[in-house]
Design brief:
about 170 residues, mainly alpha, 2 domains, about 5% strand, elongated, binds 2-acetamido-2-deoxy-beta-D-glucopyranose, disulfide bond, Chitin-binding_1_CS, signal
């Protein structure tokens, strides 16, 4: 065994990060699209998303949305945390109560209101101040004011799903 000791030591002295291979096709990591290749992202698409794709922007880089620091290009950028009440929701949740865990703000159009339960939407339940609409995380309407957009709110969950698939499932 003794003659092999230097070899074993040599192997251990090279951490995996020094032999990272930059992705040839914007897939990264080990899971999903990364398909066990363990690629690191290139500098111009530095963040490795939870789905195993390299890219830029919140859906790729937010640590709260599964950005994989280990496979992101640390030279150019790295994963970052959302900014409370400022980062636009990437998953239809908002605020810090109920389903809201990341302090996301609802978008400026569409599902603009943050409900008491932490969902972005535009029904009266989401938007009325009397229903607990959270003004720190989106727009709200005054108590009692009618919101004619109620019916369309039911589609919001599905629409968010579609949006995620498009943004993260498609290579740039
Ligand atoms: C990316 O390239 C690797 C290595 O050639 C390959 O195994 C993987 O299937 C490719 N993935 C896509 C989505 O093209
Ligand atoms: C970042 O990507 C560039 C190519 O775009 C590559 O040369 C460099 O090694 C990468 N850095 C890391 C830390 O992976
Ligand atoms: C998040 O921002 C809201 C609105 O500005 C503020 O009321 C709250 O205290 C902040 N919470 C944290 C944990 O930063
Ligand atoms: C209500 O929100 C949904 C997404 O949740 C959006 O598709 C729809 O356009 C919104 N309606 C209005 C009138 O903004």
């Amino acid at each position: 065994m003794l003659p092999f000791a230097p070899l074993v030591l040599a192997l251990f002295s090279f951490p995996l990060s020094t032999i990272a291979v930059v992705s040839p096709n914007k897939t990264c990591g080990l899971t999903l699209a990364g398909s066990n290749n363990g690629y690191t992202c290139p500098g111009d698409a530095a963040c490795c998303s939870q789905f195993g794709y390299c890219g830029t922007g919140d859906t790729f880089c937010l640590s709260s949305y599964g950005c994989q620091a280990r496979y992101s290009n640390s030279t150019t950028a790295s994963c970052y945390a959302p900014r409370n009440a400022t980062t636009a929701s990437v998953d239809g949740t908002c605020g810090l109560v109920g389903i809201g865990k990341n302090g996301y703000r609802c978008p400026p159009s569409g599902a603009t209101c943050c409900s008491q339960a932490g969902y972005c939407g535009n029904t009266t339940d989401h938007c009325a101040a009397s229903s607990g609409c959270q003004s720190a995380y989106g727009s709200c309407t005054a108590t009692g004011k009618k919101n004619k957009r109620s019916q369309k709110g039911r589609r919001s969950a599905k629409l968010w799903e579609d949006r995620e698939t498009k943004q993260d499932g498609t290579l740039e």
